[in-house]
Design a protein that fits this description.
The chain has 545 residues and is α+β, with helices and mostly antiparallel strands. The protein has eleven helices and 26 strands. Helix 5 packs antiparallel against helix 6, helix 5 crosses helix 10 and helix 7 runs parallel beside helix 8.
């Protein structure tokens, strides 16, 4: 069996390993290599984590370039920095005892990779040079290959109409039919999988088309008999059965006509034929792309980081300030930049980012709600997450904390930049790019309606907004932006096309950077897929290696 690591609902990557030109450690024969894979488990801080073995291959006898057959299934958790260590040993112990501790075996080298690095690599394949203790160079290399495990992402688009249904409403009306489709539980009981809208006063209804996953419709089994009920709607809930149809999804094609049978009437009347017919108008099967499909196709994720420079953060010179910097520990802003930035960093080819601030008074005396942390350097980007941290530390020395806490200017600016850059990227490179604006703040928004308006406008763009609440302020109002209770509505009456905001107070994760990244980024993969599907943009074919 392929070992599996648990993570509910996460896409699964099946990973295999091979190596080439390994060190020869046996004098009279070739090495007998065995590979051990460990995952880095973080503690409350990055430094307090440890390596934990999660998998080892079989021992391949007498081979300097093994292609191991054993594979591991690892959930791809986008919001977590999944770090792995490969260690290869010449297994001199009895190969049947491959689960013995490797301490006494000859060491052939090690290499490191992250899941983000793997899934964003060409052809989902990495080749890593081997190293020894202290980073010393070792002969050979190891190749890591991944492929997404096929899961139930198949869907079907269906539409039905009916003809000459029985009239259940007497001389002064006609039936008001709706359609219910049931699948079967393992115990044989029906489970409602779909219900249509009601078509009033019509014996020849045409119901709206709908999409449903095969998992929801028939547990992925197209041969499972479906039970379809055509029912006459009554306001008091005492709906009347017009008739039933039994047919599996398999064989449903446009034009298929099935008899609607009322079993009670059929039992009473020998001359009974049917209570109408049910016709298939559309039955189109397709697969919904996954986030990994877009990753494999070369999708890049660009990040902009925005830091709150309002006076409520406190004087940076004082240890009580949220912006206070010391040599022995990072403040919450630095921890958040580090945690979120390092998860997103592998998904941007050039790793250049906009480092922004808002709510500060600049050296020229002007108050700005959208400025570059590289003060006075226009729109220049920084290199890597460390560049963001350096720019933030530099800006704290140059910018006076001021206020108020206005979000809308920076969201509006991000929206304009995303719209322009997206069109440019498609035109120049043909590659897809999605954008993430991370906003770190200590206070309550003072321009809430303008912020909602800006978010609604941005919801039609390839953009997600992550807000991290730093400190102990009351962030209750921020939950409005998360739109978990319904779409945001702008002052113009326009509603958000999709939910693009995720808010997390840092204290919710007790200052744990890894947990913060998990909380803030968990919705991003679905937001990415939702955007591109809404634009009818399918994942590009993976680039050839």
């Amino acid at each position: 069996d392929v070992p599996k690591m648990a993570a509910p609902n996460a896409p699964v990557i099946v990973i295999d390993f091979s190596a080439a030109d390994l060190k020869k450690s046996d004098r009279f024969s070739k090495s007998d290599p065995l590979l051990v894979l460990s995952e880095y488990s973080t503690g409350s801080t990055q430094a307090s984590g440890s390596w934990r073995e999660v998998f080892r291959t079989e021992c391949v006898a007498n081979n300097q370039s093994p292609d191991w057959q054993a594979r591991i299934e690892i959930p791809f958790i986008f919001q977590v920095l999944q770090q792995f260590r490969i260690q290869i040993f010449d297994w001199d112990t009895d190969p049947s005892k491959r689960n013995a501790p490797p301490n006494d075996q000859d060491f052939l080298g090690e290499a490191y990779f992250t899941m983000g690095e793997l899934v964003h690599s060409p052809a989902v394949s990495l080749t890593k040079s081997l190293a020894g203790p202290g980073g010393a160079s070792f002969p050979g290399n190891v190749r890591v290959r991944g492929q997404q495990k096929v899961t139930g992402n198949a869907r079907v688009r269906l539409q039905f109409c009916a003809h000459k249904l029985d009239n259940k409403d007497g001389l002064f009306g006609k039936s008001d039919p709706f359609l219910v489709i049931y699948k079967r539980h393992a115990d044989g009981s029906p489970i409602r999988a779909f219900q249509s809208e009601v078509i009033s006063n019509n014996l020849n209804p045409v119901w709206k088309p709908f999409e449903i996953s095969l998992a929801e419709l028939c547990n992925g089994d197209e041969n499972m008999p479906l039970e379809m009920h055509v029912i006459d709607y009554d306001d008091d809930g005492s709906h009347d059965m017009i008739g039933k149809v039994f047919h599996p999804l398999a064989g449903m094609q446009p034009g298929l006509t099935m008899q609607v049978i009322n079993e009670a009437k059929q039992a009473k009347k020998k001359s009974y034929q049917n209570s109408g017919t049910l016709e298939v108008i559309h039955a189109d099967r397709f697969a919904t792309p996954s986030f990994l499909d877009y990753m494999y196709g070369g999708l890049e994720i660009s990040m902009a980081m925005a830091v709150d420079f309002t006076a409520s953060n406190g004087n940076p010179a004082q240890p009580t300030s949220l912006h206070h910097m010391s040599a022995d520990r990072l403040n919450e802003y630095q921890l958040a930049i580090h945690a979120i930035g390092h998860v997103l960093e592998p998904y941007d080819a050039d790793r250049k980012y906009a480092a922004l601030g808002f709510g500060g008074k600049l050296p020229d005396g002007s108050v700005s709600h959208c400025f570059n942390l590289l003060v006075g350097q226009g729109n220049q980007e920084v290199a890597g997450v460390q560049g963001i941290l350096d720019a933030y530390e530099q800006a704290i020395q140059q910018v006076t904390l001021y206020g108020p806490t206005n979000f809308s200017p920076i969201i509006q600016a991000a929206g304009i930049q995303v719209a322009q850059q997206y069109a440019q990227d498609l035109r120049q490179t043909g590659r897809l790019k999605y954008h993430v604006l991370v906003m770190l703040t200590d206070g309550v928004i003072t321009d809430m309606q303008a912020t909602v308006d800006a978010i609604v406008h941005a919801s039609s763009l390839p953009l997600s907004i992550i807000i991290v609440g730093v400190g102990n302020a009351d962030f209750g109002g921020m939950q409005i932006l998360d739109a978990d209770d319904g779409p945001l509505r702008a002052s113009s009456g326009q509603t958000a096309v999709r939910d693009i905001v995720q808010f997390v107070p840092f204290r919710k994760v007790a200052g744990n950077p890894a947990a913060l990244a998990g909380e803030t980024l968990q919705e991003l993969p679905s937001q990415v897929v939702q955007y591109f599907m809404s634009q009818r943009i399918n994942p590009p074919a993976p680039p050839r290696q």
